[in-house]
Every structure is written in C-alpha cells, then in structure tokens.
Amino acid sequence: MAETAKNPMQRRSPRLQGYDYSSPGAYFVTVCTYKGRCILGEVVDGVMRLNDAGRVVSDSWRWLENQYTYVKLDEFIIMPNHIHGILLIINECRGRSRTAPTGKRKPLGRLIGAFKTISTKRINQMRGTPGMAIWQRSYYERVVRRTDRMDRIRKYIINNPARWVRDHGHAESPSRDIVDNRSM
Q1: How many of the other CB atoms lie within 10 Å of CB of 23?
Q2: Which residues contact 32 (CB under 8 A, 6 or more apart)?
C-alpha cells in the first residue's frame, strides 16, 4: 500500500471540515490587509480614526447587509490593518425591492470575497492605483455557537482600539485570546 507524500507547500485550511458555511449562524471574521499594512486609519488615544480607505472599508462591510437579504451585521471594528466583525447568516429575508431570491445563499467565504472585491475596487479607484492588493489572501473565522462567547467576542471587538498600543508591532494575530471553534 503506497502512501501519498504530503506537499509541504500546500496550505492547510483553517475551516471546519464538513461544516456548511452558508448555513444560518454567527461568524466572527477577521480580514487583514496585505502584508499587514496600516492603510485604514490610525488609533489615537485608544480610539480608531478612519481615513478615506477605512471609510470605504466601513461602507463596503455595510454593503454586505444591503446586498444580501440573508446577511445581518453585528458588532464590527475597522483597525489600521484589519477588520473584525460578526456576520450573521439568517433564514428570514428582509423586505427589499430586489429580484426574487433564488433560495441559494452564498457561503461565508464568497461573502468575504465579495466584500474584499468591492472594497479593493473602491479604494484603488479612489487612489488611482488599479490592481494594487489591499487584502491578504485568506481570512480568519470562528463559528460562534454560544451566547456567552458572542458577548465575549463583542467585547473583544469594542475594546480592540484600546489594546492597539499593547499589540506587538501592531501586526495582530487575530483572535488570539478567543478560544477555537470547538469551544464556540
């Protein structure tokens, strides 16, 4: 019986195997800028001050909720080099004047991809830098399954700017003090 050698260059997926990421639920998401560049604003005295690019990111994040009837946004914060947010995929469709829903929801990865595409295009158009990378290749996510964890994550998001000074080099390891998927 021959064993297949593992490719050391192959990336290991951080996603839960077999989990349906289009199913209703709460998802804690972190998306980091390309190479951790601080391009979305700055933290001053523990308060995040968005620049023009940061405001585009904020508008693009909110766009998800307006674009997809099954998406609801909870707490979020845009930091100089990343965004933390809680995205809810829900069953009910909110009334809007749009084409009739097909019943098919985009999974979380496609929603994050849409956010990245929209925000990247808008930032690059604003700056006159077509094709410039804004976001890292992937994103971090946690499936939130318990109310007490949701409250803890909300607090983590709200307090993120106050922790910025203590963040080593401001290249945060997202969610490091949030427990992994198995306990959420």
Answers
A1: 12
A2: 81, 82, 135, 136, 139, 140, 172, 174
**Separation of CA 130 from chain center:** 23
Can you tell me the distance from the alpha carbon of 137 to that of 110, in angstroms, rounded to the nearest whole number?
A: 13
Assigned architecture for domain 25-92+104-161: 2-Layer Sandwich (3.30)
Q: Residue 54's CB: how many other CB atoms inside 10 A?
A: 20
Question: Within the chain, what is the greatest distance between any pair of CA atoms?
Answer: 62
Question: For the segment 90-131, what is each residue's pLDDT rounded down to a tens digit?
Answer: 986 555 544 445 568 999 999 999 999 999 999 999 999 999
- Could you tell me the residue ranges of all domains in the chain? 25-92+104-161
Statement: the pTM of the whole predicted model exceeds 0.90: no
